């Protein structure tokens, strides 16, 4: 085979065809032996990452639901505490009123008894 010149550079046509054949054989061997394993490894990694993203989304959704539940529970507890404080305040005021009324009645009764004693003694 003869040499050819491309852009002023001599190229051996036989060597070029031989290198193209060797490259094709090497590429075919790599494709059969390595590329499938590499592609499979990349696919497995892709599936693993997608699975992890799915699991992460599930955990995120669960955390969001639990946060909402806790927020509702906290609000309900606050409402109950406010109701209890209001009820306790009302009961305390009623007890104080009853105690004042009873003290007033006892005092009035004592004054009345004292007046009777003074009237009986006079």
TrEMBL record:
InterPro entries for this protein? ATP_synth_b/b'su_bac/chlpt, ATP_synthase_B_chain
- Keyword Nucleotide-binding in annotation: no
Q: Which residues form a coiled coil?
A: 39-116
Instruction: Name the source's superkingdom.
Output: Bacteria
Q: How does it sit in the membrane?
A: Single-pass membrane protein
Q: What's a single GO BP term from this record? A: proton motive force-driven ATP synthesis
Any one annotated GO CC term: endomembrane system
Question: In which broad location class does this protein mainly occur, judging by the first location in its UniProt entry?
Answer: membrane
Q: Which UniProt keywords apply?
A: ATP synthesis, CF(0), Coiled coil, Hydrogen ion transport, Ion transport, Membrane, Transmembrane, Transmembrane helix, Transport
GO molecular function list? proton-transporting ATPase activity, rotational mechanism
Record-annotated membrane-spanning stretches: 6-30
Subcellular location per UniProt equals:
Endomembrane system
The job of this chain, per UniProt, is described as: F(1)F(0) ATP synthase produces ATP from ADP in the presence of a proton or sodium gradient. F-type ATPases consist of two structural domains, F(1) containing the extramembraneous catalytic core and F(0) containing the membrane proton channel, linked together by a central stalk and a peripheral stalk. During catalysis, ATP synthesis in the catalytic domain of F(1) is coupled via a rotary mechanism of the central stalk subunits to proton translocation.
Family assignment from sequence similarity: Belongs to the ATPase B chain family.
Matching PANTHER family: ATP SYNTHASE SUBUNIT B, ATP SYNTHASE SUBUNIT B', CHLOROPLASTIC
Q: Please give the name of this protein.
A: ATP synthase F0 subunit B
